[in-house]
Write a structure and sequence with these properties.
The structure is a homodimer.
Chain A: H1 19-23, E1 39-45, E2 51-57, H2 59-63, E3 67-71, E4 97-98, E5 104-110, H3 113-121, E6 124-129, H4 136-140, E7 153-161, H5 164-169, E8 173-181, E9 193-198, E10 204-208, H6 213-224, E11 231-235, H7 247-263, E12 267-270, H8 273-279, E13 285-294, E14 300-312, H9 318-328, E15 338-346, H10 360-378, H11 382-389, H12 409-422, E16 432-445, E17 454-461, E18 467-471, H13 480-492, E19 499-501, H14 520-547, E20 554-557, E21 560-563, E22 566-572, H15 573-583, E23 588-594, E24 599-601, E25 606-608, E26 612-625, E27 631-641, H16 648-668, E28 673-674, E29 677-678, E30 697-702, H17 719-736, H18 747-757
Parallel strand pairs in A: 1-12, 10-11, 14-15, 18-19, 27-30
Antiparallel strand pairs in A: 1-5, 2-4, 2-6, 3-5, 7-15, 8-13, 9-10, 9-12, 13-14, 16-26, 17-18, 17-23, 20-21, 21-22, 24-25, 26-27, 28-29
Chain lengths: 758, 758
């Protein structure tokens, strides 16, 4: 870990460095931007889920009041194609075929947003309507119409470890079941927005509420037909993303950029909530056929899962979601025989893509339901079953990877047992029933074998000792700026208030790939640490000249270079920095940080894939009103092995927030389709958890440091989604005595059980 | 030099990369900026050159229509102090004392610029007027009033080499004379302008027409009382600077920043021409008492110069100007005995500071007048005298520095002789007289021993093979963006149109100090080269894996990685870059480049000071109308040793532009004072050379490469000023038979000679 001395900033609770401007409204979001000559874009969308697009009549729209121009697919200078990875199957605007209701067919640009919107209503497409394919089963039928030329299977992957058939034969007990989850909307507070500003120097700046500015740059440049370095993407304050501001930001970035270059005016596209829900990606709906075998003593002998993911109209980030579902389906357990097959399927619905958890919540719900069903079958305590099979350092994961350290899973189970032991058992009565559910999970940290894991960061100290940090990974509300500031502060021995973490832009750091996979603290933090260490090296070299003593005797602490032997001997960092500048020691460094290499077989899905896993166990205790179906969460405990806590307030916030999304997935949220059209594209009809639903979460932080994260830290942004969702389902099953295998388990579902019994 | 193979881009004539947007008006300058909520600042200035400032009544101004706020010295949050180097003697706004007419006493902010200006007129200061000190002689009088507490001598330095007294004693011929030059105005097309924009994240961005963004950042942060990293300075397109946009940009940057933070609105300050002339620094006026001794054969035995520089009210960059005058006074000659003393003096006039040439034009005028006077005395050809004494590799300069290479002085003399040999001798007639003058010069490249010579640059290649270059030194019209693009293109083997050189900002590169001392191509170019070489290294490593052959067999050329043995075997750089990204070879590098160390004694001013000198010889052939005094330059030849030509068009442009400034200094320009107040603060009364004055310049480029510049290149931005001014004076002397020892030599001066004779 390289930390022989106690840490000064790491591990201390600190307020978010950008918290004040956010809560006071001082932070300006993309849609707040106003520039001279700025015009507004509004997308015309298809009203049908599946059709041949024969023609688009734009004349009425062009004549509409205040409309400046109308753009259709043929106006995109480049290939009119987006997509994170092959097969690059998604047009920016539909050209020949409509594949989901809500797909963009034209962009109307007006002097005001309202004028653009009115114009967009006057776009008249001519369709040859096709029968939409709306279910996985229909898509997989023999002779089904092909949604894309290559067929209706987006991706299919299989993980094989040991011999699952034999493992099931060796089992004393086998449980099996089919589990389903629904499409889920990201529901960030700030809908998608971009502002494209053309400059006199033939460059264009895209200000965007976005997650992965380098993705935007590449796609926008390609579709504008200009070199990537003519495009600068600046990540504006981003009011939540959760995976949802990759694809759509790219799409509207290209649209705004195309219009801005043609009109030579700044172009704003800022979505309304309905556009955000209809036009942006969602969490994959899943159907999981799961079978688990075990010995009488609870030892797992085999786990077999067949997973179907509904990917909607386009591939988007399905490759990663497919992969994550595959890797995580067997859970945080030692299982010698595993067989997982994940198939992602095209349907004529809103495309599914990245969403906090990335396939893990779906399979964890199935896996952890199975564990509880198995425990019941075996007459075992659910926590004991998890403890018996839980991964330890040196054990092999489902991909047969083992870790020497930072496998704190069993500690999370034991911590949750301690919580449960505190509880008094509530007695059911005529109206209310009570239950407790637990669920365990693991979630891989970093892109690992799924992609390149490179991050750039820069750290600059000014002569006055103040510090500027930049990183290619983004702040999305998760607190990365605060974590980066803490890391720089720790390494440079300066106070937090001397550190500024600036906005991300694509000009100033190395292409850092996407801000995903809970890798920001871990991989991004390592880059910041590396850059800061270079600057710290200069400061120590300078201080060594000033003190006339070897560097090893000097430490940087609380704004001073201090002599270890005599802490009264100290020089302010501002003086050291000024001297270093004039002496010629570099005070700025651009780090290029890379995750350790992986060794992975993409055919069998065996090998070393992630630099670490986050492990967790959740517990929920619920009270259910059998009259109304209302579920009251009396207690929620979430224990996670986070390697090292950087900011306890931040970690707690991440766990609370992710758990609430898991709770929404498990209990409230479902995108309702009728004939392929979303029926609840608003927050009145789509039930997203509100502040009133905030869970009474008790956060338990286990620190089992990883050598691959800064000071040992591992990410925690995504894992709690899976834990909370699965624990909720198990708690409801415990309370009601009924195993619900479809999420969400709504109040209606619950009351229907009791009505049946009544 | 590291260039075994022929160069592809370096040395080729290329159009300025930013030329098109500049000539089409697409480039947006600072004053073109318009932002929502933007307000305008206008400075109230003192109308007297010297006074105790008793009070400032701001009430009427505050009540003036559209005025939002008024700021005086006490409203500056920080120390209200600027200055490049100690003694830091200049307030941002005058507080207790007025030291020149035009000094800022208050800032008025209004909704419009006109309202702010009207408000500024209503600022009522109460003065106790003092008798201004307006000449160097008055300032140096015993018992003179002290303009600053430390006295009226800003700086005084003395260079001693050998024994000058003995040298003069040994001389067969001694010439002596006193030479004077005037204050000169920078007269850039775009007057000073800044726009301060406060952000929600507690940072402030200063967009500025400026020369040295890191200077701005430091001073602005200090005076705003915030850490430097909370200030981001972006250099906007800058319509000329020539040294003039350091101090004033700092001053108005602080003013705009102070107002922006208080009002939380963007604040624009954009000067009118009169403000620019009255309120910004000028070139030091000089009086130089010069004596030169020589043997009969022309061998110089001693040169003795006593230089007085009028520095005006504040020190500004006088330390550097003092130093440069000191080092360069002896000229590009081998002289064993040199004594130079330079004294810079405070007066109650506009402060003098940086101006293209930095003290060298003044002393070169004196030195080269002396050389001609000596030649006349000796009956020698002026070029022969210069050739006899000219520096060669291995010779000692005035500071006793010697260079192994890149001393191409004698080649410039010989080249000019060849030009002269072409001429037919014109015969004087009743009205017209003809003459030819030459002048030689040297000018140190880099800050050298005068300061820190550190530059940061970044080079980033995108996966599509396009390249983004950033550097901490600025484009001021001199063509640095083009030079940087050429260097990156050369190193990376890509075409120029794939390279973008972006705007400079203080966030994204290492503090690079000021853009001065003709060091941009040399020191800045080395930084760009270094950064590009790192990226090229990644590309070669990747190509080596792709070709399965050692790196040494691969070169990057014309957009491809090419096998040297078989140039048909090539891979597009875009493919190499994409593969490199995914394989984990860094495609971006932030270079920190430093000039070689110096070894200099600041007491005797002996030692190694600059990494190289530019050497030059100019020739002017003039026709003079004895009736009107009109001087027609029939021919101008400028031969310079530039080490290596990067862009012949750029070098030619630099030589033409700098020569024209020298011509203005020698013939047209003089700031006229009456009672300490500038009488000609406009382009009607102040005669700046116009396009009609463009010289018929023949540029001769000598290439004697320096190991300390990229591909051997040395800067050429400043040297021709001195050459053209001195050659003009010598040509006029030759034509008229009268030695004018004061610059400018105006038409009036010339006709007065002939009137006297008539």
């Amino acid at each position: 870990m390289g930390t022989q001395h106690p840490l000064n900033t790491i591990g201390k609770p600190v307020a978010k460095v950008d918290g004040r401007e956010l809560v006071t409204g001082k932070a300006r979001f993309t849609a707040d931007m106003k520039l001279p000559g700025m015009v507004y874009g509004y997308q015309a969308r298809s009203g049908v889920p599946s059709a041949k697009l024969l023609a688009i009549d734009t004349e009425k729209a062009r004549r509409s009041d205040g409309v400046l121009d109308v753009f259709t697919a043929e106006d995109i200078p480049g290939p009119n194609l987006i997509g994170i990875l092959p097969p690059f199957d998604q047009p920016v605007m539909a050209d020949k075929e409509i594949r989901y209701a809500g797909e963009t067919i034209a962009l109307v640009v007006g002097e005001t947003r309202e004028q653009a919107k009115q114009g967009a209503r006057k776009i008249s497409p001519s369709y040859q309507v096709l029968t939409p394919i709306l279910t996985v089963d229909d898509a997989l039928k023999e002779n089904a119409r092909k949604i894309h030329p290559q067929g209706n299977i987006t991706f299919s992957k299989e993980l094989i470890k040991g011999d699952a058939r034999k493992g099931l034969e060796d089992a004393d007990v086998v449980v099996t079941g089919t589990y389903e989850t629904s499409f889920q909307e990201h529901a960030y507070l700030e809908p998608e927005a971009v502002c494209a500003v053309p400059h006199g120097d033939n460059r264009i700046t895209i200000y965007a509420s976005c997650q992965s500015p380098f993705h935007l740059r590449g796609h926008i440049a390609n579709n504008l037909g200009v070199p990537a370095t003519r495009v600068k993407v600046v990540q504006a304050y981003t009011g939540g993303s959760f995976g949802g501001k990759d694809d759509v930001a790219v799409e509207i970035g290209i649209l705004a950029g195309t219009a801005a270059l043609k009109l030579n005016r700044p172009v704003m596209i800022s979505h309304e909530r309905e556009e955000s829900i209809k036009g942006s990606n969602v969490r994959h709906a899943a159907r999981i056929e799961y079978t688990t075998g075990a010995k009488k003593d609870g030892t797992l002998t085999a786990r077999v899962a067949k997973v179907y993911l509904d990917g909607g109209a386009y591939a988007s980030e399905s490759p990663f979601v497919t992969m994550k579902a595959l890797i995580h389906a067997a859970g945080p357990y030692v299982v010698d025989n595993v067989s997982v097959e994940v198939t992602t399927v095209y349907t004529n619905k809103t495309y599914a893509g990245a969403f906090r958890g990335f396939g893990v919540p779906q399979v964890t719900f199935a896996s952890e339901s199975q564990m509880d069903e198995l425990a019941k079958e075996l007459g075992m305590d659910p926590l004991a079953l998890r403890e018996k099979n839980g991964l330890k350092a040196g054990d092999l994961t489902a991909t047969s990877q083992s870790y020497d350290s930072s496998v704190g899973f069993l500690e999370t189970v034991r911590a949750i047992r301690t919580v449960r032991d505190r509880f008094t058992v509530e007695k059911n009565d005529d109206r209310y029933v009570y239950g407790t559910g637990v669920a365990s999970l693991l979630q891989g940290i970093s892109n690992g074998a799924e992609g390149v894991d490179v991050v750039g960061a820069s750290v600059q100290m000014s002569q006055d000792g103040s510090v500027l940090v930049g990183c290619g990974l983004t702040e999305l509300g998760q607190g990365s700026r605060t974590v980066f500031a803490q890391i720089a502060s720790e390494v440079l021995g300066c106070n937090m208030d001397r550190v500024v973490v600036r906005q991300v832009d694509t000009d100033s750091v190395h292409d850092s790939g996407p801000t995903v996979a809970s890798r920001t603290t871990t991989v991004g933090g390592m880059a910041v640490k590396k850059a800061a260490e270079q600057v710290a090296g200069s400061l120590k070299k300078m201080a060594s000249l000033m003190f006339k003593i070897d560097e090893e005797h000097i430490e940087l602490k609380e704004g001073f270079a201090v002599l270890k032997q005599d802490t009264n001997a100290s020089i302010p960092l501002s003086e050291v920095a000024t001297a270093a500048y004039w002496t010629g020691f570099p005070l700025m460094n651009l780090a290029f940080s890379q995750a350790p290499p992986v060794d992975y077989d993409h055919d069998t899905h065996q090998g070393d894939i992630y630099l670490a896993y986050n492990f967790g166990t959740h517990l929920m205790k619920v009270q259910i009103d059998t009259y109304t179906g209302e579920v009251r969460v009396l207690h929620h405990a979430a224990a996670h092995d986070v390697g090292r806590v950087v900011n306890p307030l931040g970690v707690t916030g991440q766990i609370e927030g992710a758990s609430l999304i898991g709770y929404g997935l498990a209990h409230l949220e479902r995108i309702e389709y009728a004939d392929g059209i979303i029926r609840n594209p608003n927050f009145a009809d789509y039930a997203v958890p509100s502040i009133k639903d905030r869970l009474p979460t008790e956060t338990i932080l286990i620190e089992d440091p990883t050598p691959n994260g800064p000071f040992g830290a591992k990410g925690v942004g995504e894992p709690p989604v899976a834990g909370a969702a699965a624990a909720f389902a198990n708690a409801v099953a415990d309370a009601t005595g009924h195993r619900f295998r479809n999420l969400p388990v709504t109040r209606e579902d619950i009351t229907s059980v009791f009505r049946k019994e009544a």
